[in-house]
Design goal:
The chain is an alpha+beta fold. Helix 4 (55-61) crosses helix 5 (68-79) and helix 6 (90-103) packs antiparallel against helix 9 (144-168). It is built from 14 helices and seven strands. The strands form two sheets. Strands 3, 4, 5, 6 and 7 form a five-stranded antiparallel sheet that branches. Strand 5 (195-201) and strand 6 (206-208) form a beta hairpin. The chain binds a DNA duplex (21 and 21 nucleotides) through residues 1-4, 8-9, 12-13, 15-16, 23, 32-35, 53-57, 67-70, 72-74, 77-78, 105-109, 119-121, 123-125, 127-128, 132.
DNA sequence: AAGGGACGCAACCGCCTCCTA
DNA sequence: ATAGGAGGCGGTTGCGTCCCT
């Protein structure tokens, strides 16, 4: 549910505290609960003149009856001028899924690669959107089953949608806003009809999606694929896919790993994966096939046809 | 129209690590 | 070396809003 736009969020945030006296607790001399306009103004003003940090003394010096932690959180998650509001874009969703597959619940680390997004926001996104899908699939969000689902269906679907949006917009889609970093991520996505490079350049705030001929298929390659759920290197596919995230100015970022969304070979070959067991799990959760849940429009008949085809061809 | 469930998100909590004296 | 404070981080909660029945 994306019914909270920027303005709404702000107005709601303040409207809900119009009757703050009823809602806020006063614990000793410290205030808790939603922040008031005056408090926000005080905090912004103080930081503008004195800078941030040393939050406990900052809270005292600014005359805020809040804990240092509360001030820090309010500033970082809401008041900071570069906080980016609004819906999580497709590109950001893709990045979150990818980074979470590598780092798990390292929200702050993930947030570092989404300019303007806070760890809190990403955490909320994960809990409300991603975990919802895991729940619908009746599987654990950390299970291989769900991770494979994300990797082989959800993420390729996102890439397709990004492609479509880019094509509609002339081939270049605006991405994740300004950034002081120059992290660059390049994906090469191979789907049924085309191979696409997804080049995410946070620093320049653009995503380019040039169409390329299909250069690799499972049928013409004997390359081994990852035997693990995503998050592990995909061996021997580098030449064919060239689907590596490029590291710039961040040594933590994708240390040599490769990823391959829509990798058909990978889809058919994970050892011990649920894909080798057929479509049982999908069929048991028919709402995913029937479109019972189309909130994110990540599934369609083509996906199911594709999966069925893969299983049949490997039977 | 009303009530209940689902959702989204701001804020809090507790634990951990780091820094400094 | 160590103790205490500050800050960071992930998990959780509370509440307003929306939607469906």
């Amino acid at each position: 549910m994306d019914h909270h736009e920027d303005g709404n969020k702000v107005s709601r945030n303040y409207s809900q505290i119009s009757d703050q006296d009823d809602q806020e607790e006063l614990t000793g001399d410290l205030r808790r609960g939603p922040w008031t306009v005056d408090e926000d103004f005080t905090l912004i003003n103080y930081i503008a003149h004195h800078g941030e940090g040393r939050w406990n003394s900052l809270a005292r010096s600014a005359g805020l009856k809040r804990t240092g932690k509360s001030c820090r959180l309010r500033w970082l998650n809401y008041l900071r001028p570069d906080v980016r509001r609004g819906n999580i874009t497709l590109e950001e969703q893709l990045l979150i899924l990818e980074l979470h597959s590598r780092w798990g619940n390292r929200w702050s680390k993930i947030a570092q690669h989404l300019p303007g997004r806070t760890d809190n926001e990403i955490k909320n996104y994960w809990r409300t959107r991603v975990q919802k899908h895991a729940k619908q699939l009746k599987c654990d969000v950390n299970s291989k089953q769900f991770k494979d689902t994300m990797r082989y269906l959800w993420m390729p679907r996102l890439v397709e949608r990004i492609q479509a949006a880019a094509a509609a917009g002339g081939g270049v889609a605006t991405a994740v806003g300004s950034s002081s970093t120059t992290t660059t991520t390049a994906y090469l996505f191979n789907n049924q009809n085309s191979t696409t490079t997804l080049d995410m350049t946070s620093g320049s705030s653009t995503i380019t999606l040039p169409q390329q001929p299909n250069t690799f298929t499972p049928e013409n390659s004997s390359a081994a694929a990852s035997s693990d759920s995503f998050g592990t290197p995909v061996s021997d596919l580098t030449e064919c896919y060239n689907n590596y995230p490029v590291v710039n100015n961040n040594q933590d970022y994708y240390p040599g790993n490769q990823i391959s969304y829509g990798d058909h070979q990978s889809l058919t070959s994970p050892t011990g994966g649920y894909f080798s067991q057929g479509l049982d799990f999908m069929e048991q959760n028919s709402q995913w096939i029937d479109g019972g849940d189309v909130s994110d429009s990540l599934w369609n008949v083509d996906d199911m046809w594709f999966l069925q085809h893969q299983f049949n061809s490997n039977a």
